[in-house]
Amino acid sequence: MIFDDLVDAIGHTPVVRLRTAPADVTVAAKLELQNQFAMKDRVARQVILEARENGVLAPGAPIIESSSGTMALGLALVGNVLGHPVHIVTDPRIDAITLAKLTTLGCSVHVVEAMTSNGWQSARLERLAGLRKEYPGAFWPRQYSNPQNPLAYAALAEELVADLGRIDVLVGAVGSGGSLCGTARALRRALHAAGMSGPLRVIGVDAVGSVLFGQPDQPGRKQSGIGNSLIPGNLDYRQIDEIHWLNDREAFAATLDLARAEGIFAGNSSGSVYQVLKYLAATVAPGTRVVGIFPDRGDRYVDTIYGDDYWQQAGLAGLPVRTEPLRVDYGTEVNSWARATVPSATRSRLVFVESNTTGTGMLALSRARDLGLSPVMVTNRPSRYAGIGEADCQIIRCDTNDANTLAAAVLAHFAPDEVAGITTTSEFYLEAAASLAESLRLPGSSPAAVSACRRKSATRQLLADAGLPQPVSVPVTRAAEVPEAIAATGLPCVVKPASDSASTGVLLCDSVEQAQEHAAKLLAITHNVREQVVPPEVLVEEFVRGPEFSVETIFVDGALHLVGITRKEVSPPPSFVELRHVFPAPLDEAASSEIEQVVRTAIEAIGLRHGACHTELRLTTTGPTIIEINARLAGGMIPELIRLAGGPDLLTQQLRAAAGMAVELPQGALNPTGVAFITSSAEGRLASLDGIEAVRHLDGVAEVRISGRPGDPVKPATDAYDRIGYVIASADSVPQLDQLLDSALEGVTVRLAND
Question: Can you name the residues that pair with 713 across neighbouring β-strands?
Answer without folding.
Answer: 685
